[in-house]
Prior knowledge:
78% of the residues lie in helices and 6% in strands. By secondary structure, it is mainly α.
Amino acid sequence: MKRLANTGILLSSLFGYMEWGNNQHSFLFEIECDLLFGDKSLLQTITHPIVLASVSGQLLILYCAFKSNSSKKLNLLGLLLLGILMLLILLAGLLSANIKMIVSVLPFLVFGILLMAAIKKERRKTSL
């Protein structure tokens, strides 16, 4: 269950949708690809706190998805780091009443809840 939730979190985070300005919009995977492989200096773009947190969160979730007995703390840290960006997208969507932005975050929230439930269930099994 944890592996499925981690995979869902990783994939759904890539489809976070953002809109800004006049007719400017993008999915998170497009922005990450542009930041990592664009003409800009990688060191300047990757050291922005939001970019650094979300990429770190994705790497932690990816690690936890493939490791059979991953740490609960690493799972939750990855979810928290990635959740910061996704909740900012949700907040921006709510404040601007942008339904596309709001809906793009919902799968991430569902998989995040599933991950926390799986961790809680695993903790109950180990305490018995």
